[in-house]
Task: inverse folding
């Protein structure tokens, strides 16, 4: 996850919570995103937004009202959290919809409920350090019932971010994303392609080299009171969609197209299930199975060199390659996290997987310094993406600009769909 701010026009460009993974679960990644474009692909374009019990309304707007600087290109939803088995509930608005991560994460500062703590096998209170590309979120693991639209799941472990009870461990490194202005949202609704946020590696002994050290058992509020612990898969933070009783094999995001100069706000939907209801069929979408690390490939330009890539609604821009490869200048000084071409640049690329799935896309890159401050939804915001997943190579993170005007499906690992088992993306 990465937060990008355009100082000239006063916009925060979203954090991205990117995840990828092998067969056992995701390898957590982070910030970034590629830019714009409304054409290309074989699936349906967004028309009349669907309705039904498996549909959760979403909006791309300026983010929570209390943000110091408004958010750009974040799709937000509201969910209801409840104390398990009770009617004591709270609606939490402006959770960022993220297909690049897994799990429900809510800021402690917005939570008014007292939720029971989760514990490790030794009875210690559980906490988690969730890593991003250049940062991390620290918080306790608690248990809640969750309702998303008319669909609900019971007794889910969630992360309560920014809890002050336990000091952040020294090995929870990177730029902290533990409050509203660093996270940019009231929380994260991680609806990615895996069943939980770590997998078999976190179930290994805490001293085993493959345990990535995400989960901690906390014995005291003193510095050093939280130590890496082993957590069985069933006790890890799950994909909330996978815990639904019926529409639990994936999601689709539907956002209408936006013009080149953006929109103030855009209404869309998050639809639960793939091929489980009349309103969530794949139609003519092309399916892109994910490789063992959770990626597809992108050829840039179309027919050109191949790059590791992924689709991530939690990335607020199209973050791709670098200035030397694209020949697009970055913005000046501390704005060099974005591209700033002299005029709108139109590009093409091909997303593919193996020899059977491919789609050629046309997309645009605008000058980030010149984007209108009054708007918060853009299809052509872009910046470089170097250092993830390979620190020596550029890559493609197809962020939220990719989702405008398309129906984009994310199928969950091992779950059956009409086009085979996940994990895959389709559009």
Result:
């Amino acid at each position: 996850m990465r937060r990008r701010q355009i100082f000239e026009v006063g916009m925060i460009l979203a954090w991205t919570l990117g995840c990828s993974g092998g067969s056992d679960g995701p390898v957590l990644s982070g910030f970034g995103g590629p830019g714009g474009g409304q054409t290309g692909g074989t699936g349906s374009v967004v028309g009349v937004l669907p309705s039904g019990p498996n549909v959760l309304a979403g909006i791309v707007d300026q983010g929570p009202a209390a943000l110091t600087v408004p958010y750009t290109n974040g799709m937000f939803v509201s969910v209801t959290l409840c104390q398990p088995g009770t009617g004591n509930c709270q609606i939490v608005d402006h959770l960022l919809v993220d297909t690049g991560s897994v799990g429900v994460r809510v800021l402690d500062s917005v939570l008014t409920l007292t939720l029971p703590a989760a514990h490790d096998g030794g009875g210690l209170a559980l906490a988690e350090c969730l890593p991003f590309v250049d940062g991390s979120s620290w918080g306790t693991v608690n248990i809640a019932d969750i309702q998303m639209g008319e669909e609900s799941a019971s007794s889910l472990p969630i992360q309560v971010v920014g809890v002050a009870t336990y000091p952040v461990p020294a090995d929870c490194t990177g730029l902290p994303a533990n409050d509203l202005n660093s996270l940019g949202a009231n929380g994260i609704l991680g609806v990615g392609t895996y069943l939980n946020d770590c997998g078999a590696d976190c179930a290994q002994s805490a001293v085993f080299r493959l345990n990535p050290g995400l989960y901690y058992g906390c014995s005291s509020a003193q510095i050093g009171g939280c130590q890496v612990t082993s957590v069985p898969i069933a006790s890890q933070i799950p994909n909330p969609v996978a815990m639904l009783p019926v529409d639990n094999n994936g999601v689709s995001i539907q956002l209408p197209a936006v013009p080149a100069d953006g929109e103030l706000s855009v209404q869309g939907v998050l639809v639960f299930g793939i091929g489980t209801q009349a309103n969530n069929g794949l139609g003519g979408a092309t399916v892109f199975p994910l490789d063992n690390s959770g990626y597809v490939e992108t050829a840039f330009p179309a027919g050109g060199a191949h790059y590791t890539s992924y689709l991530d609604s939690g990335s607020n821009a199209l973050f791709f390659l670098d200035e030397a490869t694209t020949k697009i200048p970055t913005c000046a000084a501390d704005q060099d996290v974005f591209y700033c071409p002299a005029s709108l640049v139109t590009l093409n690329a091909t997303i593919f997987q193996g020899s059977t799935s491919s789609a050629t896309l046309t997309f645009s890159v605008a000058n980030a310094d010149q984007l209108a401050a009054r708007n918060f939804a853009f299809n052509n915001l872009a910046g470089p993406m170097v250092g993830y997943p390979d620190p020596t190579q550029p890559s493609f993170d197809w962020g939220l600009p990719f989702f405008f005007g398309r129906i984009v499906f994310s199928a969950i690992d091992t779950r059956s769909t009409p086009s085979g088992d996940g994990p895959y993306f389709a559009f």
In short: The CA atoms of residues 201 and 211 lie 5 Å apart. The helical segments are 180-183, 323-326, 400-403. The longest helix spans residues 180-183.
